[in-house]
Amino acid sequence: MVVGGTDTSSNTIEFAMAEMMHNPETMKRVQEELEVVVGKDNMVEESHIHKLSYLQAVMKETLRLHPGSRVLVNVWAIHRDPSIWKKPLEFDPIRFLDANLDFSGNDFNYFPFGSGRRICAGISMAERTVLHFLATLVHLFDWTIPQGEKLEVSEKFGIVLKKKIPLVSIPTPRLSNPDLYK
């Protein structure tokens, strides 16, 4: 399960970072939420994750736009259906703040981990891993793309969904406590 979830989790993190860098107001809002929940002199811990509702919405929106795979059911098309989603091609985590959508696969408008007998066995691990990595990356650093580069969020289809062009970004420490970077 750990090996099977490595590609999909790392791809989800890469897509989420690319979407936040493409939508700087989203990145800023996640950083503000982290400052309130975690504080500027602390590292992100697992106990913080359930309090990060906007970051959870960012992950859900990332999985809506970039689901891990298209095996059996075309989740990619369902998650972009304008009869189901308002402005389906826009990255908008706010749509998940008041919505009661989870990863259980019971709502057939949103099931990035599949549903029924084919549901992903690693949902819980993937959710924790992706949220903890994203929280840590966004909390510790400001992110930019190299000068002259264009941020591309296009997809490459395969067994798992990947970014067509890998994300290249520059981290800049954003917290004042140098011990947090050791």
Automatic annotation (TrEMBL):
One Pfam family cited in the UniProt record for this chain: p450
Enzyme Commission number(s) of this protein: 1.14.13.21
Residues that coordinate or bind heme: 120
Cofactor: heme
GO molecular function, one term: heme binding
Entry keyword set: Heme, Iron, Metal-binding, Monooxygenase, Oxidoreductase
Protein's name in the database: Cytochrome P450 76C1
